[in-house]
Sequence to fold (208 residues):
Amino acid sequence: MTGEKYVIKSFAGIKNGKILLNGIMLHESGQLNFDEMMDEVYRKLNLAYPKFHKMDQLSKLGFMTSEFLLRDQKLTDEYEADKIGIVLSNKSASLDTDLKYQSMLDKGVASPAVFVYTLPNILIGELCIRNKIKGESIFFISDRYNINQQVDYMLLLLNTGVIGACIAGWVEFIQGKYESFLYLVTKGDDQSGEEFSPVSVKKMFNQI
Fold:
């Protein structure tokens, strides 16, 4: 056990056309649908990441949330790549893309570009590639956001030294309905931030 103190350094979320960082709304897309909102925000951020346009909606949602979460963060400058973890969860796994792929199969079309996203942990892979993360990762599926389970698992990884920092949260997309919440946990030494606990995570999640 390391005995380190950990804090939530930042949190971000996307829901109902709104993007928030640390409880402050940074963007509102009004009546735009999800794809239109993603395109609008992509242009606003001046992202030069063409692979984004090939992602499924779940990956786009998690990816864009992480772009706001990690803005001005240099994780790989502070931690080795294999000491940064990702712990995510949702309710529907990759069902939205699964249904899309099944519909294509019913029409006699098999698209490898769609098939590759028929696993929820592909989102984790996209975040790892983008941010050069190589640490422990897992994607939990549950009917509701089980914050206690997520925090317990992360503390196990952090306190045993498997990782030193972690991106975690809830990313759900199904048939046009979406909700994302990501937060970044790091060591508490000389850093501002709320102490990492189920209570603090729940409080932040409720602000999204």
